[in-house]
Design brief:
Number of helices: 10
Shape: globular
CATH topology of the largest domain: Muramoyl-pentapeptide Carboxypeptidase, domain 2
Oligomer: single chain
Helix content: 40-55%
Number of domains: 2
Strand content: 5-15%
Strand order of the largest sheet: 3-4-6-5
Order of helices and strands: HHHEEHHHHEEHHEEH
Distance between the termini: 36 Å
Length: 276
């Protein structure tokens, strides 16, 4: 497997930066990479060609929403499983074997308990950061906390309908250190989604996960206007409406990140009683 950032080539550090940007920002165009790194189109193409040859990245066509004008869809570059592995997945096989052993000896419920125990530490550390943020900045604060732990997260407002009504926010994680393990044990994703709901105090829904082959782990967070009143548990329909609107508003910036509206990795969750 190719090792990014090593070797004798003087271009290797720059090539590693290119791969890192693709990892952290999701599918991007060559022009965007060149602008960010200050590279000529020829230099960008050279690095991209090497990364493709090494199996670190792959090409995709940008998704187009609504009426498309003339011309070809933009070509995007996305990280591959091998590319993620080159950064930090050295212990995936051991972790998967350990969880398989746990499930065989103690049952699937033990894996769920383990996942929730693991996430509880992150939730404990993130709680003061999220609670200290203003109401409109809680998702961003959570994204910054996740990024500090290597998840390369971002928060984006989402609108729905012609009037641009706020549908909520999307929390995107462009890197997942346990993606290969979570592919076999989705309890890890489900426990994380539950924790997000508790931290943010609002219904959330996982729309996509790297573990299931998507470019980005994407979680929809319902807008304040879509939340149910305190003490009620009837917020799921409104939150689901927000999710549908959010998906229709997603542009090429999330190309390759989202599956169908059903969501692959988890159901809509409510704070205080979460269904996976």
């Amino acid at each position: 497997m190719a090792q990014l950032g090593t070797g004798q080539s003087g271009e290797q550090p720059t090539r590693a930066r290119v791969a890192r940007l693709i990892l952290e920002n999701g599918p991007v165009t060559a022009a965007s990479l060149g602008t960010t790194l200050g590279l000529t189109p020829a230099a960008v193409r050279r690095h991209l060609d090497h990364l493709i040859a090494d199996g670190m990245i792959e090409t995709r066509l940008a998704r187009v929403y609504g009426n498309r004008g003339r011309g070809r869809p933009a070509r995007m570059f996305a990280i591959t499983d091998a590319g993620r592995s080159a950064f930090e997945h050295a212990y995936d096989d051991l972790a998967t074997s350990a969880l398989r052993f746990l499930a065989e000896r103690a049952g699937p419920g033990a894996v769920t308990d383990f996942a929730r125990r693991q996430v509880s530490e992150l939730e404990r550390r993130y709680r003061p950061v999220v609670d200290a943020a203003p109401p409109g900045g809680r998702v961003k604060a959570l994204a910054e906390a996740l990024s500090a732990d290597g998840y390369a997260a971002s928060a984006t407002a989402v609108t729905a309908g012609r009037g641009g009504v706020a549908a909520g926010e999307q929390l995107c994680q462009h890197h997942c250190p346990v993606a290969h393990v979570a592919a076999e044990y989705p309890q890890l994703c489900e426990a994380e989604t539950e924790a997000f709901g508790r931290l943010l105090g609002t219904p959330v829904q996982r729309l996509a996960t790297i573990a299931h082959g998507d470019g980005v782990c994407t979680t929809h967070v319902s807008a304040s206007s879509l939340r149910s009143p305190a003490g009620r548990r009837d917020g799921v329909p409104s939150a689901s409406a927000g999710v549908a609107g959010a998906q229709s508003a997603i542009g090429a910036g999330s190309a390759g990140a989202l599956p169908n509206a059903a969501g692959r990795a988890g159901a809509t969750t409510e704070v205080g009683g979460l269904s996976a």
